[in-house]
Amino acid sequence: MNDTSRSSPEADLAFLRSIVQGGGDPRATLTMGVLYLAGGLLYGLQCLFHLGQAAGVIRWPGPISLAFVTGVTVAFLLVMAWAIREDRKRPKASPVVTRTLNAAFSGAGMANLAIVIVFGFGSARDQDFAVWLYYPAMIFALQSAAWYVAWALKKKGWMLAASIGGWATAVALGLLVREPLAYLLVATAALFLLFAGPGWIITREALKARPAADAA
């Protein structure tokens, strides 16, 4: 009679693989995907708005323009609040890969805050808005590093493309801070392609995985 109390080596390996690579709760990646998608679309739209202003197509009064820009940030903060609330609902346990990815992007977020303070203070002190424009370049550089970690763990081609694209965008923005129109063009394309694009992919994959997770 077979001893069913012992698992086979294949079953043990499958179990270990599920711990490291397991699907986990789809909400763990859904919130991240929605944040990237919303950030890319909203701030990409804001860059398009500024391009329209630079081209003379959009001639809104100052208060209305300010209200629009403020509305973009408020909308993103609302999405962020939703994401934080959703993250608190999901189980804390998650696969090693998921936790590592979360740590990589959370670390990038912490660095972003420091960069905001440094470049914001430097720009105000020197009365030079161009100093502040180096901030987005640094953000894309950090995102490039985070996406490289993601690619090293997941080996998905689009993650490597996002990493390379982020690196190239960081360099381009850093070189174009004194060229407003070219800077806006690069930033607009990068926000749609490197933020909204990955956000859409992550969101789509998480939504596909959700029915299976709910049925489990």
UniProtKB/TrEMBL annotation:
Write the protein's name.
Uncharacterized protein
Identify the taxonomic lineage of the organism of origin. Answer: Bacteria, Pseudomonadati, Pseudomonadota, Alphaproteobacteria, Caulobacterales
Please give the start and end residues of each transmembrane region: 34-52, 64-84, 96-121, 133-151, 158-177, 183-202
Which keywords does UniProt give here? Membrane, Transmembrane, Transmembrane helix
Q: Does the keyword Membrane apply?
A: yes
